[in-house]
Amino acid sequence: MAAYRTNVISKEKGNFVVPAFLTPATTKSSLCSACSKSHTTNNGRLLLISLSSHWTIDWPSMAAPETSTAAVPTLYTNNTLRNAFGGVLSFFILLLIGVLAFSIRLFSVIKYESVIHEFDPYFNYRVTQFLTKKGIYDFWNWFDDRTWYPLGRVIGGTVYPGLTLTAGTIWWLLNSLNIPLSVETVCVFTAPIFSAFASLATYLLTKEVKGAGAGLTAAALLAMVPSYISRSVAGSYDNEAVAIFALIFTFYLYIKTLNTGSLFYATLNSIAYFYMVCSWGGYTFIINLIPMHVLLCIVTGRYSSRLYIAYAPLVVLGTLLAALVPVVGFNAVMTSEHFASFLVFIIIHVVAFVYYIKGILSPKMFNVAVTLVVSVGLAVCCAVIAVLIALVASSPTKGWSGRSLSLLDPTYASKYIPIIASVSEHQPPTWPSYFMDINVLAFLVPAGIIACFLPLTDASSFVILYIATSVYFSGVMVRLMLVLAPAACITSGIALSEAFDVLTGSIKFQLPGVSSDAGVDAGETSSDTTEARNDEVKAEKPEETSKDQFSKKSKKKEREHVEKPSAKSKVKTKAEKKRLLALPLEASVVSLLLLIVLGAFYVVHCVWAAAEAYSAPSIVLTSRSHDGLHVFDDFREAYAWLRHNTDVDDKVASWWDYGYQTTAMANRTVIVDNNTWNNTHIATVGTAMSSPEKAAWEIFHSLDVKYVLVVFGGLIGYPSDDINKFLWMVRIGGGVFPHIKEPDYLRDGQYRIDSQATPTMLNCLMYKLSYYRFVETDGKAYDRVRRTEIGKKYFKLTHFEEVFTTHHWMVRIYKLKPPKNRTRGKTKKSKSKTSSTSSSKRSGTERKNPWH
Length: 852
Description:
Layout: E1 4-10, E2 14-17, E3 28-31, E4 38-42, E5 45-46, E6 48-51, E7 55-60, H1 71-103, H2 107-111, H3 120-134, H4 136-140, E8 143-144, E9 153-154, H5 155-158, H6 162-176, H7 183-210, H8 212-224, H9 226-229, H10 240-260, H11 263-279, H12 283-299, H13 305-322, H14 331-334, H15 339-360, H16 363-393, H17 402-408, H18 412-416, H19 418-421, H20 431-437, H21 441-452, H22 458-476, H23 481-509, H24 522-545, H25 552-563, H26 567-581, H27 585-613, E10 621-625, E11 628-632, H28 634-645, E12 651-653, H29 659-666, E13 669-670, H30 679-690, H31 693-702, E14 707-711, H32 722-736, H33 759-763, H34 765-771, H35 775-778, E15 782-783, E16 788-789, E17 800-805, E18 811-816, H36 837-848
Parallel strand pairs: 12-13, 12-14
Antiparallel strand pairs: 1-7, 2-6, 3-4, 4-5, 8-9, 10-11, 14-18, 15-16, 17-18
Helix pairs in contact: 1-7, 1-8, 1-24, 3-6, 3-29, 6-7, 7-8, 7-10, 7-23, 8-23, 10-11, 10-13, 11-13, 12-15, 12-22, 13-15, 15-16, 21-23, 22-23, 23-27, 24-25, 24-26, 28-29, 30-31, 30-32
């Protein structure tokens, strides 16, 4: 460390101001050698001097300190080498974690094939194909007439474009580099690539909170956590594939800005938030969680200029950028999900103004100004709240979306919006699902929360708030276990890192042959020695100046510096304190081994979940039995039949679950699909499926439907078939058309398809299309999913005809029969049997011509 000396710069009158970037935050008072006056400085740099005859400034001396010893340079060199080696090691560990995150998600490709999974990814794949073929401008203006017939859909204005634009950009870059990959291949591997990026973002975020060790641990945990794997395996081309990375990276930049107060990072934070808005509707979690943290900091007295810089640009620039996304638009300022951010924005400006006037006014004037500012601030807040209430009062949901209301009130969807409640991923999770999706992290999270309180900082308080809110939301919807996964990995990484530090430190202190002084970390020894050395060097300066001026202030400063302990005594004190906190050697070793075993169990579970539970694509099903592996490829078989055996303009009706796949794989027009934006249209299809055959035919015929597709799992035991979903069709249809009543399909409150089923159930279209000719399979018509024989085995279809059934009876396709010739009236029969032949011919002619 360099000693400080005073240099006389000039003998003229005036003020000398040092630029802000040269002034650190800590200040001290130094004694001028020319005028013997005390001036405020920042670590040896003069801030502002008002002199009568000279300018002075303290600069670090370039000469070596007079009291230097050999220990300080040695420790400094060792610490530098250690930091350099640690940085290189951390880089290679991060690289391996990224490789692990990518490779563990390839089981679906290795075991099965490179194929798009689930339902929604097929729509995203179709949109990406359109983007790469037509270009960005046609994409924004694309009106898709093959969905939601006869309404259609404006794709560019109703889709979150982040995933599509990301994959399209990757495809364009690879082809520009003469790497000819297909669009499907890029879509399949987008999620594994961004899972590696998410691990890196987790490392950066956790490092800002608790250091590099906790960051590496959290990144390794996230790379393997099953909850995240379920949404990011190869082929899972959904919005969450890139949204989780954007979520974590936005939080990292917020914490980075909060720690540094840098406007550069604040701008990057707004851009990251914009990417999150483009990627997923879950961006509302960010724009509500960060204001909650800002308000928490203000209430607990932790306001600072860094907090203002971290939040204000995010609200202003982030909201402006979010409004540029067509699917969001003015919702960024008009919906209730965003109002909390604006309210906190007003509050933080009131607080900032109060802190500002406190520094420039006297205490008496400050009290008057605070009263005025608070009064005006409350008036503005009340006015804003009144305006917001007026804006949302006209909405039945008070400006909240249905999914947001379902999160705030878990019973809301089941009461008012059955279309949301019918989705399986919107159901509350069970306790075993937590163990399945985050495994041992569920037990480490409480320990991580405690570690965040030791000590409590702005960054660690954000992590506590993050884990608390994500735990609540994951308990409402099983889908939001995905949001819980990063928070659980961060807190668990902090817990494991702190535990390893304590246990390894305890073992190191009690190893035979290790002295008390050697038990202190080299880095800590270096820092303590350097700090003590600085104190000794600083103590010399007041001692020298006191020879000229024997003021009380200089004598007091001298006594304070002399009384400070030396470096050696400081190190010994640290060592003694650590020895008192050390655990017994045997307990430390056993606990360390238990943590290693716990980590090994976590790794084994994650690999099993990635290889077996979450790698199988839903489009191709497999089953193992005593005679080997069975593959059920009925979905692609049915879509291929539609593509090759129907006209291009034919309309296909099915439940909304299969709309995206039908459009993407069969290239046929559908009535409803997975976007579920029009509840009335979906209720119409549900009503047709719940109605008798003739009434259903009339509904479908009015929609110009030519084919009806149903999914049936009774033969092979596939539980996610339309019979199991049928009650949701009844509820959704009954919500719009009152003549459809759920009790009519239940026998004593029970849903049955056997001989005890109600006549309404046995005669509805869904029952007939599912069980038509089912008795021919085994002679008993035994349903392997419901585990009973069906109630109505022999019946004929009058208005539909079967045109195709897949090999395992999983998908059945029916065609609407053409309408019969209608007659306006019947001719009267001849009363006399002895009527003439001419009258008979005339009556026959009248019967043949219904328009007379």
